[in-house]
């Protein structure tokens, strides 16, 4: 009798969760995989629903990699059959967990991006074309404590492919799309092969660090607005770096040559792979 009651309750909970997922998914942010969920929870995401096909494995993973979240996951995980999870998230993560969360407030993001003085630069991606690169840049920005990432152009930096590549760290920094006229205030340091070697430049904390695509670089419109053009060291006959690599080099230069940022909320504090 107890087993039957337990099974019935589990089935009811699963059915309710599936209905909620389908009702919520279109307007929500998909957190695909344990690491995306972990980071989103750590940085205050409003996670509405969490599904898994293997509750015990997810809780074991949490105990190993994120014990600070074991309690909340134990309360919120809803187990569903594996095939059901695959129907909802066809390209699901190997950790067999997915969640839906509320997108961060655009107004709050814009406020954070425009507030001066800033403790760290804003990254500007000028008309990026690859969502995976956008997510990788968000992950870098979060790790370095950058104020945020803004994109120009027509792709949504909150697209699920970007959120997946960013491992849920969109919730750890301000990520928004804008026009060139809507860029946050601050001196605009644009990465361009014709610019001054970045090793001879001090990047101020309130700078906008702007990057174009590997193929086309920054647009003429953005170049015309630049306070300073700077370039990254590169061996002759090598045409470009990956976008995320370029951002990492520029942020590392800022962190290594500016004021002491460690521990003040304006830069990387520690090294961790959890």
Strand order of the largest sheet: 7-6-5-9-8-10
Spatial shape: elongated
What is the radius of gyration? 21 Å
**% residues in beta strands:** 15-25%
The end-to-end span amounts to 42 Å
The tally of strands reads 10
Sheet with the most strands? 6 strands, parallel
Indicate the low-confidence ranges by residue numbers.
270-274
Order of helices and strands: HEHEHHEHEHEHEHEEEHEH
Concise overview:
By secondary structure, this protein is of the alpha/beta class. 39% of the residues lie in helices and 18% in strands.
Describe this structure in words.
With 274 residues, the chain is of the alpha/beta class. 39% of the residues lie in helices and 18% in strands. The chain contains ten helices and ten strands. The protein is elongated and about 70 Å long.
Which properties best describe this structure?
single chain; 274 residues; alpha/beta; six-stranded parallel β-sheet; four-stranded mixed β-sheet; 10 helices; 39% helix; disordered C terminus
């Amino acid at each position: 009798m107890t087993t039957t009651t337990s099974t019935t309750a589990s089935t009811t909970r699963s059915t309710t969760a599936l209905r909620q997922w389908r009702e919520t998914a279109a307007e929500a942010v998909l957190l695909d995989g344990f690491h995306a969920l972990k980071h989103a929870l750590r940085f205050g995401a409003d996670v509405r629903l969490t599904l898994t096909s293997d509750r015990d494995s997810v809780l074991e993973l949490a105990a190993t990699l994120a014990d600070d979240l074991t309690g909340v996951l134990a309360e919120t995980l809803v187990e569903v059959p594996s095939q059901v999870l695959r129907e909802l998230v066809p390209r699901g993560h190997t950790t067999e967990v997915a969640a839906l969360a509320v997108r961060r407030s655009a107004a709050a993001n814009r406020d954070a991006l425009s507030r001066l003085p800033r403790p760290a630069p804003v990254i500007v991606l000028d008309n990026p074309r690859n969502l995976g690169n956008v997510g990788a840049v968000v992950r870098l920005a979060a790790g370095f404590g950058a104020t945020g990432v803004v994109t120009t152009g027509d792709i949504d930096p909150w697209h699920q492919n970007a959120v997946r590549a960013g491992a849920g760290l969109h919730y750890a920094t301000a990520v928004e799309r804008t026009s060139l006229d809507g860029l946050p205030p601050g001196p605009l340091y644009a990465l361009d092969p014709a610019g001054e070697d970045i090793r001879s430049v001090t990047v101020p904390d309130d700078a906008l660090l702007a990057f174009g695509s590997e193929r086309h670089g920054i647009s003429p419109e953005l170049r015309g607005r630049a306070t300073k053009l700077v370039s990254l060291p590169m061996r002759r006959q090598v045409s470009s770096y990956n976008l995320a690599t370029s951002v990492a080099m520029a942020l590392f230069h800022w962190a290594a040559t500016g004021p002491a940022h460690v521990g003040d909320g304006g830069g990387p504090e520690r090294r961790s792979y959890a």
